TrEMBL record:
The gene is purS. This is Phosphoribosylformylglycinamidine synthase subunit PurS. GO terms for cellular component: cytoplasm. InterPro entries: PurS, PurS-like_sf. HAMAP family: PurS. Part of the FGAM synthase complex composed of 1 PurL, 1 PurQ and 2 PurS subunits.
Length: 76
């Protein structure tokens, strides 16, 4: 079994890396991009007994900084 965790900065938190990507896209001629938010995807290979609640606990303790980031868990 696998879990996929999507981590993004919360709304209202400045994203300098996303802004750098937006600026670079404009410099490369890709007009019309109003904003970029950059996040990360973490894919976990799990033993059969690991639950979604276990993965959420992993996110709360290590995988996401819950002060400034939100996350979602997808069991696949």
């Amino acid at each position: 079994m696998k879990a996929r965790v999507h981590v993004m900065l919360k709304n209202g938190v400045l994203d300098p890396q996303g802004e750098a990507v937006r600026h670079a896209l404009g410099a490369m001629g890709f007009d019309g991009v109003k904003g970029v938010r950059q996040g990360k995807v973490i894919e976990l290979d799990l033993d059969a007994g690991v639950t979604e609640a276990d993965v959420e606990a992993m996110c709360e303790k290590l995988l996401a900084n819950t002060v400034i980031e939100s996350y979602s868990v997808e069991m696949i």
